Amino acid sequence: MDQLLEQFLSEARENLAFIDQNIEDIGGDDPELLNSVFRAAHTLKGGSGIVGFDSIRDITHHAEDLLDMLRDGRLEFVESMTAALYDAFDEVLNLVEAAEESEGIVEADTEILNTIVTSLSEQMGKDEEVESVWKAEFLLLEDTSSVVNMPLYMLKNESCQKLAFKNPPLSEEFCENENFYAVLFDIDESCMVYGNDPIYTLSLIGDKVLGVHSCISDNNAKSVLSGTEDADGLLLRVQLTAFIKSNYAEIEESLFNFIDELQFLPLDIQTLLSIDAGEKGHKIDSLKELSDVANDLELDEIVEAVQRSMELVGADTLQYAQLQRFIDISSFIEEGDVKKLNDFFQNLYKGEVYNIENNNEEEVVVQEVSVEEKETEEVEEEIIQSTDANIEINEHIELALTNIKTQQLQALEYIQSDDDLKRVLSMMSKIKKFTPQMPDDLSTKDEIKSFLESQLGIVTSTPEVSVEKKVEQKVEKSLNHK
């Protein structure tokens, strides 16, 4: 007999024995008993699907549906349901015994199968014209940040896989098609003891598993590695996140032993780019050069431009995390979706979390309440590009110069290399023609900081007020003078 079929038949007998002992009590006041019977039926369905035992899968699929409707409160229990379920699982036992005797998969009698399916369907009211509301078969992950913010370097260079830029609403059709999911396993201590190996079950999906991220606490790691509490190496206490490109049915068939405890997050390019890690709210002007790359360049050229820009960005900033995320998932992006990255790159320098859902609304607000800010940014760009030292200094230029100086003072906090310092010095040289007080020999971080603080009116001898707060006060004062 095939080893996988033999294992299924053995496990099927155990589940059928449990169902037989408890099915008459499913209409009682113990919801956990109903849940346990449902899980046993669900395991039967998943296992039969893996080995190709279609008759058992057809019967248990309908029995599982009835049990699921009972536990969700969509149906009121009536005694006739017990008899219908007994008949269904008795036939499953007959099929298991026949397979053991023949040492192979057998087919159910068509008439018997149709009678059982009809009986279960009648109990669910499926013979009546009742409007049904589709419900996802899996548990959706609520805290999406736990997945979105984790390192995804293991997905890099998956060149044969492409993702939707934005997934459609969750529906039955969506689940039937192949999609990209993050599937979260929260493995408890008893998992391996009872033979439920998550890595083995993931291997059943084969190359549709594109990556796995594992996380284990320091105390649990020490306990497992020392063997003091786990001489047999079976107490696995770990959280796994598997990244799977497949349809839900294939995932369910392979992970049937875990399926009720798993959490799913459908992923698309938009969601993966919404990483929220690192220092936020600090503008990095050098990243403005990436603003139009989605309109002007091909995908591989954008990747090269991003890699060059990362050398000028502090590793502890949100922008660095966003650029790294783009590189890690760039191979998943369809060439035809490149222009959809426009909002991501145009707002990148601002140090804000990417959220495409609010972009249109935010643009309207900016146009209504931030006209002054837009004008100031235009003047800043004019100052940076200008070669004319005779431009008349007006209030708009003064405000723009104050903003540039403020940005450079903040940039000094993120200097980690000579290249970072050169970038600040380059910007200082561009505004020198409008700032005659600037010394010719500025060359160090401390010299630049001292000069900018003097220009912005920041007194460093009063420690009770932070530099950042003083900068905000100075900018606010400049705006009030307009």
Fraction of residues in β-strands: 5-15%
Radius of gyration: 31 Å
What's the main sheet like? 5 strands, mixed
How much helical structure, as a percent, in the residues? 40-55%
Instruction: Give the strand order, joined by hyphens, for the main sheet.
Output: 1-5-2-4-3
Distance between the termini: 87 Å
Number of helices: 21
Order of helices and strands: HHHHHEHHEHEHEHEHHHHHHHHHHH
Mean pLDDT over the full residue set: 80
Number of strands: 5
Give me the secondary-structure category: alpha+beta
CA-based shape: elongated
Low-confidence stretches: 128-132, 359-374, 461-467
Q: Topology, pairings included?
A:
Layout: H1 3-22, H2 31-51, H3 54-71, H4 79-102, H5 110-123, E1 139-140, H6 145-148, H7 172-176, E2 179-187, H8 198-203, E3 209-215, H9 218-226, E4 238-246, H10 248-254, E5 263-266, H11 269-273, H12 293-296, H13 299-310, H14 318-329, H15 342-346, H16 359-369, H17 371-385, H18 395-412, H19 418-431, H20 445-456, H21 467-481
Parallel strand pairs: 1-5
Antiparallel strand pairs: 2-4, 2-5, 3-4
